[in-house]
Amino acid sequence: MSLQKVEQHLEQALEYLSAALAQLAFLSSVRDTNTGRYLHEGWYYCASPEEVHRVLQRAHREAFDRVLDLSLAELCQELVGYFRTESRGGAEQPAARVWQELEPYREMIPQGCSALDRELFLSQLRSALEVLVIPPESLPLEEQGASPHPQLDPQSQRRWGN
After folding, report:
1. 65, 52 in Cβ contact below 8 A?
2. Residue 156: what pLDDT?
3. Phi/psi at 38 (nearest 5 deg)?
4. If I label 68, which of 50, 118, 124, 156 is the partner at 20 to 30 A Cα–Cα?
5. Which residues, in sequence order, are bridge partners of residue 31?
6. Are 124 and 72 in contact (CB under 8 A)?
7. Contact 68, 128 (CB under 8 A)
8. Coil/strand/helix, residue 159
9. pTM for the full model?
10. 143 in helix, strand or coil?
């Protein structure tokens, strides 16, 4: 049995799901919500259930952290992409409304994360969903300026971009 094989399978699966939110959704979907155990029976041929659990648990936390690092605009883009992929079409607004009501994204939070990270994640998702359900005709037109807006340095963007 090889832990390295499980990591290779996981890497291949996550490459197919290039967006951080899609990766987070996949990883949370292989967790049993009653036990918190990560299960992927297809990978048990190359590692023990405990090893598979540890690899998936670590990857889930890493994907969660990547989503936390997204700006609100990036999270909105990832949600639109996710909804388009999952609904096989352009049904972003209806999907966002369902997510607002049912809050299925709560299942994406890894077990053992801090209360602060949990609240930040929930706040960011709620805000992004609120942006997505605004009817396009309600959005103000972008003002045409003589020069583009100044860009913040990357460190400031992480702190203030959300």
Report:
1. no
2. 47
3. -90, 130
4. 50
5. 38
6. yes
7. no
8. helix
9. 0.77
10. coil
Q: Any idea which residue has 């990766």 for tokens? A: 23
pLDDT of res. 3 = 65
Q: Is 31 helix (H, G, I), strand (E, B) or coil?
A: strand
Q: Which residues contact 158 (CB under 8 A, 6 or more apart)?
A: 69
Per-residue b/e over 87-108, b at no fewer than 16 CB within 10 Å?
eeeeebeebbeebeeeeebeeb
Query: Which positions ≥6 away from 118 have C-beta within 8 Å?
Result: 109
Token pair, residue 115, equals 């209360």
The predicted structure's pLDDT at residue 69: 97
Q: Please, are residues 22 and 13 in contact by the beta-carbon 8 Å criterion?
A: no
**32 close to 39: Cβ distance less than 8 angstroms:** yes
CA 63 to chain centre: 7
The residues near 26 (Cβ < 8 Å, ≥ 6 apart) are 13, 14, 17
Run means of pLDDT, 10 residues per run, the chain, 162 residues? 71 84 94 89 72 90 97 95 78 89 96 96 97 73 50 51 52
Comparing C-alpha atoms, which of 52, 48, 64 is closest to residue 8?
52
